Amino acid sequence: MKSLADLEAIRQKTFNKVNLRNESKDDTRIVVGMATCGIAAGARPVMQAFVEEINKRNLSDVYVSQTGCVGLCKYEPIVEVYAAGKEKVTYIKVSPEKVAKIVSEHIVNGKVVDEYTIGAVEK
User: Fold this and answer.
1) What is the CATH number of the domain that holds 49?
2) How do beta strands 62-67 and 28-33 pair?
3) Which of 1, 9, 27, 61 is least enclosed by beta carbons within 10 angstroms?
4) Range of the structural domain that residue 110 is part of
5) In terms of C-beta density within 10 A (0-12 exposed, 13-18 middle, 19 or more buried), how is residue 74 classed?
6) Contact 17, 27 (CB under 8 A)
7) What does the pLDDT average to over 44-48?
8) Residue 10 domain flag
9) Would residue 89 count as lying in a domain?
10) What is the domain count for the chain?
11) 46 lies in a domain?
12) What secondary structure does DSSP assign to the chain, as a single string?
């Protein structure tokens, strides 16, 4: 970084990655519940694990973001996956150890990890 223009370019690039409105309709969004209940249950390490796994795999069409309370505190940490043209998938009691499997099977290969979903609890 040698000038103010370089700094502005870095700021704009980062803003575009974070700004959800700039995502294309084909992108996948991973949303981690980061309200007080989620954080207390371990959502910070889960979110960090998703960011690291996405970066490690160099998945440019996948975004990780956070949200407030999802309303299912007893199932925290909660992660919701929004993929283009598919129903939202809600993963519950997510730990950093489960992240690699979710990314590998669901995000990369399109196969929902059923045993980690809220649907598995409701059965």
Assistant:
1) 3.40.30.10
2) parallel
3) 1
4) 22-122
5) exposed
6) no
7) 95
8) no
9) yes
10) 1
11) yes
12) --SHHHHHHHHHHHHHHH-GGG--TT-EEEEEE-SHHHHHHTHHHHHHHHHHHHHHTT-TTEEEEEES--S-GGG-S-EEEE-TTS--EEE-S--HHHHHHIIIIIIIT----GGGBHHHHH-
pLDDT in tens, 48-98: 999 999 999 999 889 999 999 888 899 999 999 999 889 999 999 999 999
How far is Cα 108 from Cα 117, in angstroms, rounded to an integer? 17
Q: What are 25's two structure tokens?
A: 């309709």
Phi and psi (nearest 5°) for 43? -70, -30
Separation of alpha carbons 100 and 104, rounded Å:
6
pLDDT band at 20 (very low <50, low <70, confident <90, very high): very low
| Amino acid, single-letter form, for residue 114 | D
Whether 27 maps to a domain, the answer reads yes
